[in-house]
Amino acid sequence: MSEIIEFLFSQYSSYSDSFIFLEFFAVSLNIISVIYAKQNNILVYPTGLIGTGIFVYILFKFSLLGDMIINVYFFIMSIYGWYYWTRKKNDVIINNISRLEKKEYKYLFLLAFSSLVFIYLVYDQFDMWNSWTAYIDNITTAFFFVAMWLMARRKIESWIFWIIGDLITVPLYFYKGLTISSIQYLIFTVLAILGYLSWKKTLLKKSH
User: Fold this and answer.
1) Which positions ≥6 away from 64 have C-beta within 8 Å?
2) What average pLDDT does this structure show over 48-68?
3) Who's near 206: CB < 8 A, 6+ residues apart?
4) What digits encode the pLDDT tens for the residues 136-172?
5) Which residues make Cβ contacts (< 8 Å) with residue 17, sequence separation at least 6?
6) DSSP-based three-state secondary structure for 130
């Protein structure tokens, strides 16, 4: 057991206590935020705002510019999602869980393509194409940009993009030395699967 712990967390011996606490705190908030998302609870946004704000700093330090930009984007979209989820008409919430409409798919593909191009240009500007992780980071960015947009719009398809992006990010973060964050994304994967099943159940109830 001690060998496994050493293998997973040996890199943390060079990190300060304050940094380890900061990462752990941000991870905890992000997990809580996803749990609230699974429950279709508006508290997904205030908890997410704090967690993503901290991760902007952490990811900048580790030169994961794509994921850093994702968290800036998450922060902005959390504000929008908070507004969108709470919109009411005659004291009734008007934007509930739904599926993507055909006309919305063009926005989905446009956002995915735009994010790939944008992150490519960012990495090129800062001459960061120095590792295979940069290319993986670019791909996951596209998935997460789409996932967050769909989540803010309260679309069940958001969970599918979360699942794919989370599965790719688990080994990426471990390789980069962010074991706690890697474990976070493993937990996110499980929660995203449960979130999809929970939202699907809600939609089925609405259709009957």
Assistant:
1) 133, 137, 176
2) 82
3) 96, 97
4) 888 888 898 899 999 999 999 999 999 999 999 998 8
5) none
6) coil
Could you tell me which residues are beta bridge partners of residue 88?
93
User: Percent of the chain having pLDDT more than 90?
Assistant: 36
Please check the confidence at residue 185 and state whether its pLDDT lies above 80. yes
Instruction: For the chain, state the CA radius of gyration.
Output: 18
What mean pLDDT is predicted for residues 66-91?
85
Residue 98: helix, strand or coil by DSSP? strand
Strand partners, 74: none
Give, in order, the Cα–Cα distances in Å from 22 to each of 17, 58, 63, 169, 181: 9, 9, 17, 20, 11
Residue-level pLDDT at 2: 65
What's the CA gap between 204 and 193, in Å, rounded? 17
Mutual angle of helices 179-206 and 17-38, in 10-degree steps? 10
For 202, how many CA atoms within 13 A lie in the half-sphere containing its CB? 16
Closest CA to 30 of 139, 197, 169, 137: 169
- In this predicted structure, what is the pLDDT of residue 112? 86
Other Cβ atoms closer than 10 A to 146:
24
Question: Is residue 90 scored above 80 in pLDDT?
Answer: no
Distance in angstroms (rounded) separating the CA atoms of residues 21 and 80 = 29
Give me the helices (H) in 39-98, please: 44-61, 65-85
CB atoms within 10 A of CB 171: 14
CB 62 within 8 A of CB 177: yes
| pLDDT score at 186 | 93
